[in-house]
């Protein structure tokens, strides 16, 4: 199994572990066989297995939303930060993925784009204003 070399009182010993069964180990020291019994059984580590019970609840169907042209859309702050630039004003017509504003958060500039086409009905922020996560910044219709 394993080979070891020990130096005890300036004498070298070549030790080979031949086998191990429970707390008894068969050794070969410099060619002589020995049977050694350990005081405690050597514990083997087992990798834990995560077992999950199957969910008994029925699977949840995804919610389907019928987008209508008159539905309002709110642009929320994804993270807390400061408004660096504001690229739209009330009454502007925008298309999907148009740049609405730039939000600085954790020393990074985050471009906030439109989720859908529409007309800006409200701008609730100004340049330099601090916003919290989830705060409504712009409303579209």
UniProtKB/TrEMBL annotation:
Signal listed as a keyword: no
Record key words, sorted: Biotin
A Pfam cross-reference name: Biotin_lipoyl
Domain of life of the native organism: Bacteria
Lipoyl-binding domain boundaries: 72-141
Any coiled-coil regions, as ranges: none
Protein name stated in the entry: Biotin/lipoyl-containing protein
Source species of the chain: Flavivirga jejuensis
């Amino acid at each position: 199994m394993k080979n070891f070399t020990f130096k005890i009182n300036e004498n070298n010993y070549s030790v080979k572990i031949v086998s191990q069964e429970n707390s008894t180990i068969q050794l070969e020291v410099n060619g002589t066989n020995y049977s050694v019994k350990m005081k405690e059984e050597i514990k083997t580590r087992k990798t834990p297995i995560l077992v999950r019970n199957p969910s008994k609840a029925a699977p949840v169907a995804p919610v389907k939303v019928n987008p209508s042209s008159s539905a309002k859309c709110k642009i929320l702050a994804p993270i807390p930060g400061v408004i660096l630039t504001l690229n739209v004003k009330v009454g502007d017509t925008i298309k999907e993925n148009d740049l609405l504003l730039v939000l600085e958060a954790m020393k990074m500039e985050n471009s906030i784009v439109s989720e859908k086409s529409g007309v800006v009905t409200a701008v609730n922020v100004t340049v330099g204003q601090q916003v919290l996560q989830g705060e409504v910044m712009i409303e579209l219709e």
